[in-house]
Design brief:
Elements lengths: L1 H23 L14 E2 L15 E10 L1 H5 L5 E9 L1 E6 L4 E2 L5 E2 L1 E4 L5 E4 L12 E5 L7 E5 L22 E4 L2 E4 L2 E6 L6 E9 L11 H8 L23 E10 L10 E7 L6 H18 L7 E7 L3 E8 L2 H9 L9 H11 L13 E7 L15 H16 L2 E8 L5 H8 L6 E4 L5 H9 L5
Parallel strand pairs: 16-17, 16-19, 19-20, 20-21
Antiparallel strand pairs: 1-2, 2-14, 3-13, 3-15, 4-5, 4-6, 4-9, 7-8, 10-14, 11-12, 17-18
Helix pairs in contact: 4-5, 4-9, 6-7
Length: about 450
């Protein structure tokens, strides 16, 4: 009887303590992130000093990818804009002298009726209100041109930045919206364009009725769309005053290294057609690959795509071509059988992308996209328990591709594969490896590769 009583008591205590533990249990997951700027922009003041009407003066400034952005493999492109905003400052002598260190950006506030005010905020420095004034400086922005260097890091010509001539309206206001006249800029590691050197030109205005006879000629030479030239003449009371403008550099897009970010590419599809892929899965793979090709839109002067595939042996199915229909034909001709000889699939694709090859365009960046559902088990040993030689051969082929300047992406399908091996030994890095849990997920994964959207 005693044993039975003790057993029931212990059972009752156990039942009672379960909800007690659940009610008071707590877990802490430590979450941290370090946020870095994408761009490196000099903060030095650009001072044109004392200038005279109709002078043309030039200053340079650079915008570069930050070191953190350069070191991060997951990102490639940065789109940014240059805006011009009012500048505020503390002045004395009726605006003719600017107090050092007193400037701030003025923010345009629409009044809801098509007009606006400029909010200068609090002055950065203390000042004597009897002799000094804090507020918006006469606007210099309309008289500033911005032109990029037009070359990449190697000095090759690129055309991925905008420009803006002097004698323009930097912003307009409609109802409650500020419409900025922004200048776009673009930097990309994959294009070897990591620094933009901009030239800032000042085309100095004249004042009141003190303008030279060739004022209109001066204005239209700089900007043919700036008529009437009289709109750029400053009021006589602004003569001798300090003018100001703040350049506002703003990132508006950071792209993953998607293939759609490139103007033209040479790309080899390397497709698994081994026997582990059944007919339904193979058709799904074909559909996804076909959609991928359509999104990239091969053309004579644009993207060129070729194909190798692999099972027990590899085959070169299609030379690089700009004819989209030929790529679809090669994809649709695949049939599955045999083992997984990833080595030969990569090796054949690398040979096709060799700069000496007749179908390869040496000046165009090279890419390889591998789709596989398993680990290599050919061309080496037949021992099903040891595929290390086959994996080493495929890894060596991937390294050879990288050494030849080819960027290697891998999409692993399903769970019967070693994602660590594929992401570290075959793909360029973890950022170039993508998991597709099912063949049905392939199309979405490949679609992500073709996009060039802000992350």
């Amino acid at each position: 009887m005693r044993k039975t009583f003790l057993g029931l008591a212990a059972f009752a205590i156990a039942i009672a303590t379960v909800p007690m533990f659940a009610a008071f249990e707590a877990h802490v997951i430590n979450v941290t992130a370090k946020i870095e700027n994408a761009l490196s922009v000099p903060l030095d003041e650009i001072d044109f000093g004392t200038v005279f009407p109709q002078e043309e003066l030039y200053k340079d400034f650079g915008i570069s990818l930050s070191q953190s952005f350069l070191d991060e493999n997951r990102v490639d492109d940065v789109d940014y804009i240059i805006r011009q905003k009012p500048k505020c400052g503390v002045t004395t002598l009726d605006g003719r002298e600017l107090v050092l260190g007193s400037t701030a950006t003025g923010h345009v506030i629409p009044d809801g009726q098509g007009g606006y005010t400029v909010d200068c905020g609090e002055s950065p420095v203390a000042f004597d209100s009897g002799t000094h004034k804090y507020g918006m400086l006469p606007l210099l922005c309309p008289y500033l041109s911005k032109h990029p260097d037009g070359v990449n890091d190697a000095g090759a010509q690129v055309n991925n930045d905008g420009s803006l001539d002097a004698f323009h309206v930097p912003f307009t206001v409609s109802s409650s919206t500020v419409n900025w006249l922004s200048v776009p800029g673009h930097l990309a590691k994959s294009e070897g364009d990591t620094t933009d050197n901009w030239t800032l030109d000042l085309k100095t205005p004249c004042f009141g009725d003190h303008c030279a006879q060739d004022w209109e000629e001066f204005v239209t030479r700089i900007n043919p769309n700036a008529l009437p030239a009289s709109q750029w003449i400053q009021a006589i009371e602004n003569e001798h005053k300090v003018f100001g403008c703040d350049l506002w550099i703003e990132v508006n897009g950071i792209s993953l290294p998607g293939l759609g970010c490139k103007e033209e590419i040479d790309l080899m599809l390397v497709l698994d057609r081994s026997g582990s892929i059944d007919s339904t899965e193979l058709q799904t793979l074909k559909d996804a690959a076909n959609a991928f090709v359509t999104a990239l839109g091969p053309s004579t002067d644009g993207n060129h795509i070729g194909q190798s595939s692999f099972s027990t042996t590899g085959s070169l199915d299609l030379h690089l071509t700009g004819v989209e229909a030929d790529v679809h034909t090669a994809i649709n001709a695949l049939s599955s059988d045999g083992f997984t000889n990833l080595f030969e699939g990569i090796d054949l694709a690398t040979a096709e992308l060799d700069n000496a090859h007749e179908h390869e365009r040496a000046a165009v960046p090279d890419f390889m996209v591998i789709i596989t559902d398993g680990n290599p088990n050919r061309p080496g040993t037949d021992d099903p328990t040891d595929n290390s030689a086959d994996e080493a051969a495929a890894a060596a082929a991937a390294d050879a591709a990288r050494a030849a300047g080819i960027e290697v992406f891998v999409v692993g399908v399903g769970s019967d594969l070693d994602a660590t091996y594929l992401s570290t030994e075959i793909a360029d890095d973890a950022g170039h490896y993508f998991d597709a849990a099912l063949f049905e997920d392939l199309e979405a994964v490949l679609a992500g590769l073709t996009q060039c959207e802000p992350s």
